[in-house]
Amino acid sequence: MKTILKVKNLIMNFGGLRALDHLDIQVREEEIVALIGPNGAGKTTFFNCITGIFPPTGGEIILFPPKKKSKRANRLKPNKITEIGLARTFQNIRLFQNMTVLENVMIGRHCRMSSGIVGAIFRGKATVKEEEQVVEDSFKILKKIGLSEYVNEIAMNLPYGAQRRLEIARAMATEPFLLLLDEPAAGMNIQETKDLNELILRIRDEEKISILLIEHDMRVVMSLSDHIVVMDYGKKIAEGTTEEIKNNPVVIKAYLGEDIDA
Amino acid sequence: MEYFLEIFLGGLTRGSIYALIALGYTMVYGIIQLINFAHGEIYMIGAFTALIVASVLTMLGLNTISILVLASIAAVIYASAYGFTVEKIAYKPLRHAPRLSALISAIGMSMFLSNYVLLAQTSDFLSFPNLIPELKFIEPYSHIIRSNEIAILVTTTAVMIVLTFIIKFTKMGKAMRATSQDREMAMLVGVDVNRVISVTFIIGSATAALGGVLIASHVGQINFYIGFIAGIKAFVAAVLGGIGSIPGAVLGSLILGWTESFATGYVSSDYEDVFAFIFLVLILIFKPSGILGRSESRAV
Amino acid sequence: MNKLNEIKKSFLASLWFMFLTFPIMVIRVNTVQKEIEWRWQNMFFVGISVFFLSFAWRFLFRQMASGRKTIEAGGLDKISLMQQIMNEPKMYYPILFAFTLFAATFPFIFNIYQVNIMTTALMYVVLGLGLNIVVGLAGLLDLGYVAFYLVGAYSYALLNYHFGLSFWLALPIGAFIGALFGILLGFPVLRMRGDYLAIVTLGFGEIIRIIMENWNEFSFGPSGIANIPRPGFFGIEFSLQGSIIFMYFFMICLTLFTIFIVNRLRNSRIGRAWVALREDEVACQAMGIDRTKTKLTAFALGATWAGMVGVIFAAKTTFINPASFTVWESITILCIVVLGGMGSIIGVIFGAFILILLPEYLRAFSEYRMVTFGAVLVIMMVFRPQGIVPDIRHRFKHQGSMVLGGKTKK
């Protein structure tokens, strides 16, 4: 299978602190990769680096968008990286709180639209068509994610689980080839988690989007992942299939006896 | 050479005053990450209180030293009271609101206070009595430095030492440092965050009031608008040194004081106020964390 | 018991403020004549008013806390009266008609003085709508907005003085130079956080004014520029009265034009990007929005209106000097936006009329203007940050997956 994200020797320093230490990670087409590790292992920092929020201190990040040339993403701005086709959600939900659910998704389509100031003022045929298309596309996405009942709600009034799903819907709207999910199941109850599992699998199978996720809930990780990467202190300490990771003594030690099967 | 020395010392005094005001900005920012726009007004109110108290006491026929002491004490008490009240009214209710709201509230408070003094007092410049006695041994050098300026330097140094002591060694200082590191965490381990914030405002306001008394008796006149300009400049100094850092505030103030002093002494005095702004824009573009500030890593 | 407690609280607050305001409110020194005036009555007034205001303060606080709870519990945000009117053509058209009739006949019913004030109010509506793009929609606290207003005014005054440029030519040029300055200010502040942005823009406004005061060769310094011609209309020269009425109608047209443009911008791809930027800068970038471009367009499109109104101001007063462009002016415009409701067009219109007309008609209170504006900013932020007429987000209708009238709602 084709590789779509290749991270080589990634280093990130904050002052004297090394948050990421020579990290190598690969994601292949239509794969679900889980990134696990104790708190403070540098998982979210890794997301921030590859999405351009922190410029990495060293190393290589290479993206391979389908049907296009590969791109080095080390020094690109976040919006450029999203344009290439990497989208993410946030650990602590970061919706546009005072906008409606639909508008949140429409924002996601921003970089796939082209109308400018002149279009906005004169509202020519092209702009009108584009706007209608965006509304329709956004509806479709919301339906797919199962949020169609909330379309015109203000985002911050949504129940917690729905907010998490909206984050995913918004990221989907940017038409990514790789979706980064930062603890999508955090704070969800059993039923919500189960629905989320199904949703993630559907996104991969129906939309052909690869997924890289950070997750602490081992049930989610074990049932979804094709491949698991374990981090500790900014380093990759193990990687492999679910079976390999379950039986890896280094991983068990890193979790200090935490029952990873639970 | 003497001209140079005069300008150098002028810059040093100017910088010391900025430092007294900048401390308040930097401490408040360190704790609640808000620019207290009303801080300049607190300084102005301190100066006005001193003027009013000094005038009343002069009529009663007290001697200069006791007037100086009593007026300074009154200024410090009142400025602290205002600082405390401003926080309770304009900032505390907005602690969990978006940052924009708190900023607008701060601007509003600043406008309110300066216009309140304008209405209750006057828009004219009031002449401020020279409260600091001329010292005999200074006289031969009076063309270079006056006892006023010495008083400013001594007070600033003393305030810095006391403040450093408070923050480094007292229990309240420890609570302040904890709150500025992580407010939630500090709350969890039993720090009374509301009290810490109030104390921070009180200390900041008190030092600003001292600055107000000293500069007013140095310059010799005050009006309701002095807080605005001084406030902005002290803020520039705080940012220059690295907002949130106390030694940074002092360093930034001295640099700004010297820059202004030399620029007006050797270039032109028309654009005195412009230098500070140009400085500010340049720092914020090239080194937004300031000279001694920690570079912030944004939490995502 | 509870009531007693409330009274005690108010009483203590009143004592505290009597202490607090004692030196400033009670004593007044005249340093020239060495006299001291004691105004004990002020202390009494402060005590009484704080006693009652303190009740109001706590009442509003409880009100707000319970309001927040109902939103959290109910989920659905309530639909305001304004929105009901907007949604109901039966209500909407008569009101619109009444407004048009009033606006059209206004100069013929009221005297010239009133017309002049109304023109000023309309100018502030346009200024408010312009600043609303920057502060209300994009969430960038610009405290130097008056700088663009100054730039527009001086563009017309100087271009007319040196080259005899007419008002009609100067209007787009002023708007353009305003936008240019908007971008000029936008560049250095692009990467700054909100609070730094506020103070830098504040400084920018002051710098421009100080330069105008000191650069005599260019701007004629503090004495300003006089004899700026009023606009004609296709060669018609107006009398003083005719010109004031003409200005009024011109401002009505410009206001409608501004509302039209700002409304379209707001409901466009760019408008959404502005709001997203205000809501969460990091998430906004992560969704593929170019932060630089979005901020610069907000600054430029906001400044355009200030530049344009600046030209009109110069033509209306026929005399300008730097003293008209102080930071108070920026604060007044900010206050209009905040009081009306950040992001809300109808709100800003209300805000401008309230804040500009009220001090004009309540002459006795006009000296309390700035003190009130300051208080308004604080009180609005504490109790009603969304303003008197909150911004209403666009709702889209749909049936199944089909979209009906997805573009407009009315």
Note down, in words, how this protein is organized:
The complex is a heterotrimer of chains A (262), B (300) and C (410). Chain A has 262 residues and is an alpha/beta fold. Chain A has two domains: 1-85 and 176-262, P-loop containing nucleotide triphosphate hydrolases (Rossmann fold), CATH 3.40.50; 98-174, no CATH class. Chain A contains ten helices and ten strands. In chain A, the strands form two sheets. In chain A, strands 6-7-8-3-9-10 form a six-stranded mixed sheet, sandwiched between helices. In chain A, a hairpin with a 7-residue loop joins strand 4 (58-63) and strand 5. In chain A, helix 3 packs across helix 5 and helix 3 runs parallel beside helix 6 (160-172). The longest helix of chain A has 21 residues, at 125-145. The model of chain A has no long low-confidence stretch (mean pLDDT 88). Chain B is an all-alpha fold and 300 residues long. Chain B contains eleven helices and two strands; from the N terminus they run ααααβααααβααα. Chain B has helices at residues 2-32, 39-60, 64-91, 99-120, 147-169, 171-181, 183-188, 193-219, 226-241, 246-266, 272-286, and strands spanning 126-127, 221-222. In chain B, strands 1-2 form a two-stranded antiparallel ribbon. Chain C folds into two domains: 2-74, no CATH class; 110-383, Orthogonal Bundle (ABC transporter involved in vitamin B12 uptake, BtuC). Chain C has helices spanning 2-20, 22-26, 40-74, 81-87, 89-109, 112-137, 146-163, 167-189, 194-214, 216-219, 240-266, 269-279, 281-286, 291-317, 327-340, 345-361, 369-383, and strands at residues 27-30, 35-38, 398-399, 402-403. In chain C, the strands form two sheets. A two-stranded antiparallel ribbon of chain C has the order 1-2. In chain C, a hairpin with a 2-residue loop joins strand 3 (398-399) and strand 4. In chain C, helix 6 (112-137) packs across helix 12 (269-279) and helix 15 (327-340) crosses helix 16 (345-361). Chain C is globular, with a radius of gyration of 24 Å. Chain C starts with a helix and ends in a 7-residue tail after the last strand. In chain C, 43% of the residues are buried. The interface between B and C is large, with 65 and 60 residues.
